[in-house]
Amino acid sequence: EAGVVQSPRYKIIEKKQPVAFWCNPISGHNTLYWYLQNLGQGPELLIRYENEEAVDDSQLPKDRFSAERLKGVDSTLKIQPAELGDSAVYLCASSLVQAGGEQFFGPGTRLTVL
Amino acid sequence: QQQVKQSPQSLIVQKGGISIINCAYENTAFDYFPWYQQFPGKGPALLIAIRPDVSEKKEGRFTISFNKSAKQFSLHIMDSQPGDSATYFCAAKGASGSRLTFGEGTQLTVNP
What we know:
The complex is a heterodimer. By secondary structure, chain A is mainly β. Chain A has strands at 5-7, 10-13, 19-24, 31-37, 44-50, 53-56, 65-68, 75-79, 88-95, 104-105, 109-113. In chain A, strands 2, 4, 5, 6, 9, 10 and 11 form a seven-stranded mixed β-sheet that branches. Chain B is mainly β. Chain B is 0% helix and 54% strand. In chain B, strands 2, 4, 5, 9, 10 and 11 form a six-stranded mixed β-sheet that branches. A five-stranded antiparallel β-sheet of chain B has the order 1-3-8-7-6, with no helix packed on it. Chains A and B meet through β5 and β10 of A and β5 and β9 of B.
């Protein structure tokens, strides 16, 4: 069974530039999560989707961050414009609805904003 | 808001020794307590999890001890191996629909 796929794995951009991350969850997983992981810290939830619906986006900085999950499968997280403080690892995870709370994580995208 | 506090921040043990990582939580509505293992360049992977109706759960060399009254839980790694060297995160979650809250992580190094 293929795991959660994310791309790109690494991204380096200048501040004020836009950037987008893509996630393909495990087949059949209804719930998709985007997390932010700063160096030396645990992941923090940005947004959670149940199928196509964003059901928890309270921690998403909506002035510069946006996300979409078309057709309830793949998802894209966008930052526009990026700031220096956005440098972090962006993790995508998926789960079967909320089954047992078990979430399967992708390898993440490491973003560096210069 | 730090709802799950994890210690120590880093831990060094010798091969064959016992690694112990502790977590404390504040929210009594939490009812699911997983531990994740993360290797460099990888996403976190579920290691073992417990619900508060039991005080201990063991899977191979990994054991979770849970103290509901103290609102604490810990991970014990028996016979620690160099391959166990990774960052470990405790986490907690409430009822269905709530978010998973992670601790700050413990970087474990097992020396050969």
